[in-house]
Structures are given as structure tokens and as C-alpha cells.
Amino acid sequence: MKKFCLSMMAVLSALFCVSVSSCDDEEAPVLVNEISFSSESLTILVGETAVLNVVYTPDDAENKSVVWTSDNESVATVSADGTITAIAEGTATITATTDNDIKKTCKVTVSNVKVESFKLSASSLNVLVGLNKTIAVTYTPEDAADKNVEWSSDNKSVATVDENGVVSAVAEGNAIITARHGEMKETCIINVSSLKDTTVYTKTTFKLSDFVNADFVNDKNITWSVNEEKALTFKDGLFETIRMGEVILTAKDGDNESKAKIIVTLDPSTYVDLGLPSGTLWGAYNIGAKVSELAGSYFAWGEIEPKTYDKFTEENYKYNSSNPKYDSNKDGVYLKIEDDAAHAILGEDWQIPTQSDVKEINENCKFIKMDGYWEVISKNNGNKMIIPVTYINGYPDQEHPYYGFWIGELWSKDMSEARYADMHPWDTSTSFLDAENVTRKRYYGLNVRGIVKK
Fold first, then answer.
1. What's the confidence (pLDDT) of residue 19?
2. How many other CB atoms are found less than 10 A from the CB of residue 132?
3. What is the pLDDT of residue 183?
4. Residue segments in the chain with a per-residue pLDDT below the cut of 70
5. What pLDDT shows up at residue 331?
6. Which of 189, 214, 274, 447 is the most exposed place for a label (fewest CB within 10 A)?
């Protein structure tokens, strides 16, 4: 018998331990730790009702329920679902309490003062597609209890409006937004437009206001930005183009955005498309010339600033013996991009041609001698480029003019000389642009013709 009792005690003890262990493993319920209302104060007209909506924190709390009370039921009562009924003029405090004693209050003012008239903050608005505008309402008298209007749009495909007067622009067009209070109404015309894609040229500056409505440019709520600044820079409403490319312009107001493309391309007047197999475009004229028949400015090889004829001496040359950057061919025989006048002056898309670029011209074009210039005519599309007569160092009293420009290569046999292109021979049907057999001292002044490689 004693042994039996001991066994029963052991069993009960084990069961107790299991029971306690199970209780310890159960998760505590998630309880509300905060509640809030849709409004912390209300003004209600006598005889009217209003509903307080409760927001529970955390959202997954299990005890999402409250008990409603009013401290002055002669002024306002509250039902179990949070509906407040205005009884008489005065004030009352409405309280919501959870079962774990979390409380929130709302001050209710009950009045007999009614709205006599109201006005909208604007009779018309310009809005960008994708952005919002809020129409504010001013009531008379200011202490009216029934301050509310019903909003509507006559063209929701263009603009919608919510219960707070927030207008959302959907598509280009016009819409009339109407606010009603009883028999009274006011309207606002909404003009919706979109940002337009725009094309601009390289090496130009322009303002945001040049292609965007001033209302949007001056709107302090809208911030403007571009997605990258390789093709252009943008600061304080001013754009400066750098090279060909495509940029996304964004107008942002809060969480809403409106976008458009800015396409940066070459000014067609600055280049000639000769239909070359490589797609290379040639400058329509020499740097510094206003028309293709003029020689333009003169540069020493590797310098990016033009000079007058009396300055083209070895002593005035940037890369003379005191700056031997190009005195050996260990780094190659090609002009560095930072020393390329076409790149520096015309823009980052441009460069001085090489021998291979000139060779492509010779293979795809024919040459006709004119009075003071040569016509280079494409065999592929008939377009033509002009190479004007010019003079070494820009000094016109020489007996031997030339028709050409610097090439971005040194003469490997003598690094003190650089290659240039020149028409050869003259006045024959077999003339071509020679870039293999002619060189000049690097400090001499010749013209520069840019190209754009695709």
C-alpha cells in the first residue's frame, strides 16, 4: 500500500510539472498600448451626429474594443460604436477606454451657429499630371459648427477630388471641381498639363522656365531634379548641356511625381553627316569659323586656346622643353583628350580626327576644287563638307596656302612634329586628303576640325 501511494505521488508530480511547463510555453496576449482618434476635437451643430473612428496600436492587438463615455450627456451623448449626438450648446469630453485601461479623449463643442457662406482658396488651378493640389475652404462665420462641404469632379478622367479637397491630376485636360454645402456651391476650374519631352543642343544653357509653365516653376512645394548629370548639369533652375544623352527631369511634390525626358543632341548646323560606314560625323566648319568657307581659329598642336600668328613660337608653346609631355612615344603617339581643342571647345562628344578617320573620308568621298575651298562630297548620300583655304600660323602673306587641319597624332619618327591633313595634289581629279605624308612642328598654328564618333 505504501509503495502504491508513492507511485501515485510520482505520477501526480510529473503531471504537475508538465502542466506548469505547458503554461510557461504559452505566449502572452498582444494588448493595445495606444489608441487615437480621427479627430481630437469636434464642433457639431445641435441635432447633428459625428463618428469617432479608433486606431489601435499595435495593429495586431487582440483587445480591439473600447467603452465610450461622455462627461456631459446634456450636451453630447456617445453610443457604443462611437457615434456622437449633439444635444444642446456647450462642451463635452468624450472618452474611449480599452479593457486594459488605455484612454483617449475628444473635446466636443456643440453650437447652433450655421455656415452662412463659404469660399474656395482658388477659382482655377494649374496642376501637373501625377501631382496634387489642395483646395482650402474658408467659412463664414468662422465659428460655424457645420464646417463641411461635399466635393465632386465633372471629369474624373482628368482630375479627381477627395473628401479633404485634395485634387489629383490624372490626365491632360480640364475639369470643374465643385464644393457643396446644402444649397450653396463654389467651383474651381482645374487645368491639367503634363511635362513635355524636350530636345536641346549640346554646349547650350537654358532655364527651366523656358519649357515649363511658370506656375510650376514658382511652386515652392515642387522640387525639381535630374537623374544624372553626364549629359547636362542642373542647378537653381538653370541647365547647362555637356554632351549627347538623355536625362529624366522629375517634378516631385510630397510622394507624387511627374517626369519628362530631356534629350541632348548636336545642333544640326554644326556637323555634316557624310553617310560614313563608321557613323562618324564631321564638323561643318573649322573651330572659330562662323561659316564653312572661312578658316577659323589657329591652334598649336595639343593646345586648347587659339593664338595669333606672332605667338606660334617654340618659346610660347605649352609643351616645349620645359613641359616634355609629348617628347617620347612611351605613352603612344595620340593626342590626349585633355589636350584636344575640339573636345574642350565644342563639347565632350567631339574630338580631333585621326589618320583612320581621314582615310574613311578618302574612301567614301570625292573632292572638287572651288575658288578658295575644296568640296568634299559623299559618294554615299551626296552631302558635302567644305575645307577652306588657310595658312600656316594664320599669316595670309605666305606663298603656299594649304587646305586642311591638325590630326590627333604625332609623327613617330620625330616627336617634335605632328601630323595634319592637307589636300594633295591640287587641281587634279585624283586629289585626296593626305594625312600620312605631311607633318608640321607642334608649335605651328593650324586649324582644328572636330568629329563626333558614334
1. 45
2. 19
3. 93
4. 1-26, 329-331, 398, 426-427
5. 63
6. 214
Give the Å distances, CA to CA, from 369 to 379, 406, 436: 16, 20, 21
- Give the pLDDT confidence score for residue 115 in this predicted structure: 93
* Cα–Cα distance for residue pair 279/9, rounded to 1 Å: 98
Check: CB of residue 50 under 8 Å from CB of residue 70.
no
CA-wise closest residue to 229 among 239, 215, 221, 237: 239
- 148-183 confidence digits (pLDDT tens): 999 999 999 999 999 999 999 999 999 999 999 999
Reported as a single tens digit per residue, the pLDDT across 4-17 is 444 444 444 444 44
Contact 42, 84 (CB under 8 A): yes
Residue 387 to residue 402: CA distance in whole angstroms: 10
Position 8 scores a pLDDT of 43
